[in-house]
Amino acid sequence: MSVLTKIHATLDTMAPADRQIGQFIVDNPDEMLQLSSAALAEQTGRSQSSVVKFSQKLGYATYQQLKLAVSEAKTKQWQAPAGMVHGSIERGDGYMTVLQKLVASKLASMQQTTSINTEQTIGEVLDRLDRAGRIHLAGVSASALVARDFAIKLMKLGRNVLHDSDSHVQLASASSLGPKDVLFALSHSGTSIETLRIAEQAKARGAAVVVMTSLKNNPLSRIADLVLYSVGDDDGVRSSAISARDAQLALTDLLFILLVQRQPDADDHIRNSEAAVSALKQA
């Protein structure tokens, strides 16, 4: 996971001193690489010990190790293609600027989301889904759209899937889950009260709880047995959770494709599904 992505995603939950240091690093990674811990402390108005402690909170024994991680992150950092503008969409932006910013934002969110989730974690999620007697997809608002899309894909593979757009029905379904079942809950904020209650209910019934949420420490991630992370740089209400939704879709599509590879009769199930739907179109 990129240390710059992790710092940026958790800024809001940091203590004031850590937030000031973290914001400087995110905004000025190249300058940070040229600074000693004492110089960074001076730049941010904090003590040298605060800089060292900040490094340790991120999992690095020393400030030098943090600098190395930032350097590596900069090397791998996604850059918008030449000629494409990347930044917050403003009301005064022209058509082409809005288009370029939108596409760049979507690409960045999907790239960062697929890069921060390790192959090991993805594999563990796939194992849970493979062994599940029933898979319950839960989510509200924009996450409900992603949950529905993933549910349809899993149904095409012949999986026993539960999904409903009504959160009350979702809660009732969660109450029927057991130790052989999996709840797959989506909430980018991790604070949606309906999704939290559904996850708590599934957990109480002994089901495995897999969640897809943001990097920020949140109530939903603390309930989970396994956590997948989505990265979205949505800017306020006008974004309508666009990049977060695209990040979730990219990750669920990845899971679906990997499940298809694992399942020997996946192609047969998909063909049968397509044939059934095709018959309706010809009617």
Automatic annotation (TrEMBL):
Pfam families: HTH_6, SIS. InterPro entries: Homeodomain-like_sf, HTH_RpiR, RpiR-like, RpiR-like_SIS, SIS_dom, SIS_dom_sf, WH-like_DNA-bd_sf. The keyword Transcription regulation applies. This is MurR/RpiR family transcriptional regulator. It comes from Mesorhizobium retamae. Signal peptide: none annotated. PROSITE patterns: HTH_RPIR, SIS. Residues 1-77 form the HTH rpiR-type domain. The keyword rRNA-binding does not apply. The lineage of its organism: Bacteria, Pseudomonadati, Pseudomonadota, Alphaproteobacteria, Hyphomicrobiales. Gene3D superfamilies: Glucose-6-phosphate isomerase like protein, domain 1, Winged helix-like DNA-binding domain superfamily/Winged helix DNA-binding domain. Keywords: DNA-binding, Transcription, Transcription regulation. Residues 125-265 form the SIS domain. It comes from the Bacteria.
